Structure formats: C-alpha cells, structure tokens
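Chapter summary example.
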Amino acid sequence: MPRPEPGQLLVRNRMIGLNPVDWKVLDGKLPSWQTGHIPGVDGAGVVAAVGAGIPAEWLGRRVAYHTTLHGHGSFAEYTPVAARALLRLPDAVDDEVAASFPCPALTAWLAIDKVPVKPRQPLLVSGAGGAVGQYLVQFAVARGFTVTVMANARHWDRLRALGASDCIAGPLADKQDWSGDRRFFAVIDTVSGDHATRMAAALRANGHLVCIQDRVPQWPCPPFGLTLSMHEVALGALHVHGDDADWAQLTAAGARMLDDLAQGQLQSEPRVIRDFAELASLLNALKHRDFSGKPLVRVS
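The structure predicted for these 300 residues follows.
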C-alpha cells in the first residue's frame, strides 16, 4: 500500500483510462522509470488516504485525475495523486465516464484555448476520430467555429452529430500532401508532428497550427510570408512546470466540463471496457487502432 506524500491523496481506483501516451512511454526512454515503476495517467475512484496538509474531508470523495509520468501511475489498485490535480465528480457522472475524461478532455481544452475565438471562422480537426477529437469538435462548435473534421469515414456520423459541418477522409497517408486550398483559420492536429507539418498547407495567412501529438520540427513557412502561429499542447508541461494557479485554472475548466457531461450538454466517446487482467492486450489494441471507442479497465 503506497503512502501519500505531503500534498498528495491516495486514490482507490475503480476504473482506469487508457491513452496513447501509455503505450508510447513503454519504450524505456524515460530515465526516471526503473523496474517496478507503475505506468498510467488517468483514473477514477475514491480517496482512501490523505497526506500531510490535506484536509480529511477529502476522504471518501469520488474523484478523477490525470497524474504525472514521473511518479507511480494509475495501472494499480491505489495511486498517489497531487491534490491540485484532482477533479471532484458530480453524482451523475459514473466511474466509466469519469475515467474516460481527464487526458482527452483536458488536452482538447488546452488545444482549443490556443486559438483566438473568431465565430464562423473555418477550423479543421485532423485525426478527429479519437477521444481528443470527440471533445475538440464540441468545444470548437461551442465557440462558434465552422468545424471540418478529418477522420476515417466510420466516425463521420458521430462527428456530424457533435456539430461538425464537413467531413474529409483521413488522416493523410505517409508522404501524402494536403491537396486542398488554404482555407482554414486554424488546424488542430492530433496525428503527429509530420502530419501537422503537411497540414500547414491548409492554413490561410495568419492562421494557427496546434500540435497535440509531437511537434512541428521546423517552421512550415518562410519568415514574413504567411505569418502562421505554431502551438503545442501537452498536459505533462503543467505537471513539471505549472504552479498552483495553472492547476486551479485547469481543474476549474475540468469541473465545468464534468458538470456539462452530467447535464448531457457534453458527450463523451463510446467506451470499451475490459477487466484488469486484459489491460496489456487492450493497450496493445489501442496502439494498433484495432477498435473504436475509449478503452477503459475495470479494477475489481
């Protein structure tokens, strides 16, 4: 049984959310990971213990969280989590929705927050079929953008129901260039740095390119030409460099989104749930995109 450090709480996990980052970091490249390290960043459960400086009133509360890659994670019965990263759950949000929420929804919120709000401006979400795209489409529509999605055709009906105005087949194949014109005010790319680089050709002058997976290795246009703005998004930045004010802003946004989920004003992605013994096989299936839906693991 791990013990929470000062400023931490211990969460008894009921449900674990799997994300692409989980399989991407299992290659041994993180120097802080040694034998015995517990992976996983998303979970939902009940506060079982509190560390020094944390009020006892947290005990027994239902919470969800996105935790740092630099400490033990959510692939366990119990996970120590920084108090400032916890999200209190409305009664109407069950453990499944709660565990599916933190990484994709908070990432999508950080991404859309990079783009200046200009109603009716055209915005493209590339790789929109996943969990991040699910929230991005809804956030962009709520801000008044005219949203186009690039995704596999099997996702189109769902994305149109969320408010997408147009659907494009994608993502681009390897080495395939964008063949359309420069018509978007913003492109939010969830695929890769290389894919985002090629999607920069879809941007109008003074447009915005937001990268969620990886980053653009170099500026995709000459200086004083199209004058594009580049942005990158990573929740891990706050775990390492964020202060309490940053986390207060993020968790406040998370609380509003959870309330919207509870009231049916925000829709989560369909879920695929397996038992804990199947975690590794489900994570491998996520890596190879062998299914549609948000993968979750039930902790017995």
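To summarize the output: The chain has a mean pLDDT of 95.
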